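User: Could you check the structure of this?
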Amino acid sequence: MTTIAVSNATKRKLLEVAADLQRRLGRKVDFDDAISYLISLYEENAKRYELFELFCRPVKEASFEELYQELVEERRRDEEREARKSSLFS
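Assistant: Sure, the predicted structure tokens are below.
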């Protein structure tokens, strides 16, 4: 184990995270569990941000009409998927 120094405000916030995690998991958690949880959230968000950047890159090899048509088709597919999902829960 290693000791780390944090401010009282950070310790208080970390305690809140640990308490919330303990409530959700239904078991005792310590600061190590809370920090591990926060690191996993950070890593997950970093991956999402990388994907977001990837999908927001400019597209150079297609015309506006081709890109617009692809957008319309994908939106139609999204609506069809949503309709299928909502019919499963109706």
